[in-house]
Design brief:
mainly alpha
Length: about 230
């Protein structure tokens, strides 16, 4: 079941607003870099299939977000305000990494997300996990796209009413992200060392949610690369 977010959760705070803005900025700035990164991986590993390159993306993304835990968590005597500042910075790193990862996975699967707002749609779908894929699947189904075949990501490319679907995704993203990061924040503010461990474990858990959602959204990688 999709995770339930309490109705009285405050999503208008600064962290939620910064997170949403950072997500959109990351999508705009990292799309080209993600495509170039996949091309570089293919050049460095010319004999590897799309599935193997996808495995590399999964592994490197999880390693990156686990390492994003701020050093302040392991420094004795750090002030609470400083630690909260580090949590904010760490959150932005996670968002950028997740956006980069999703766009790179799209490139591996041959899904061209550069038209309209499909980049934003698919990145938010993956970052939201089960609730994001449920929103997208419902939108595709009600639009008649479910009969088109292919992955959920591929069927979304012709989705009508894209702005409204994205609006729902943004609202859900702000709520869910604020709740999850607040929970991890409490662990990170634990005594030195313990906070770092909790933060690393929490980030990796969130990262696995992103990887699982990407698998649901993009499906199985193609057997081979396109000839062109």
């Amino acid at each position: 079941m999709p995770e339930r977010v309490p109705a009285d959760t405050d999503v208008s705070g600064p962290l939620a607003g910064i997170a949403t803005g950072a997500l959109r900025k990351a999508i705009r700035s990292q799309a080209g870099a993600a495509r170039a990164y996949v091309r570089k991986l293919r050049e460095n590993h010319p004999d590897e299939s799309p599935a193997r390159i996808r495995d590399r993306l999964d592994s490197r993304f999880l390693s990156a977000v686990t390492a994003a835990v701020g050093a302040t968590a392991a420094v004795p005597g750090v002030g609470t305000i400083v630690a909260f500042g580090a949590i904010g910075a760490e959150s932005l790193v996670f968002i950028e990494a997740a956006a980069f990862y999703t766009l790179a996975v799209a490139e591996v699967h041959g899904v061209d997300v550069r038209v309209g707002e499909h980049e934003e749609l698919l990145v938010m779908t993956v970052m939201l996990g089960a609730s994001g894929t449920a929103i997208l699947a419902n939108a595709v189904s009600t639009s008649g796209g479910a009969s088109a075949g292919g992955s959920l990501a591929g069927r979304s490319l012709g989705l009508p009413g894209l702005k409204e679907v994205n609006r729902r995704m943004v609202s859900r993203f702000a709520r869910k992200f604020a709740v999850k990061r607040a929970t991890l924040a409490m662990g990170k503010l634990a005594p030195a060392g313990i906070g770092a461990a909790v933060g690393g474990w929490g980030n990796r858990r969130l990262g696995r949610t992103v990887v699982k959602a990407a698998a649901t959204t993009f499906g199985t990688p193609p057997d081979s690369w396109p000839s062109t």
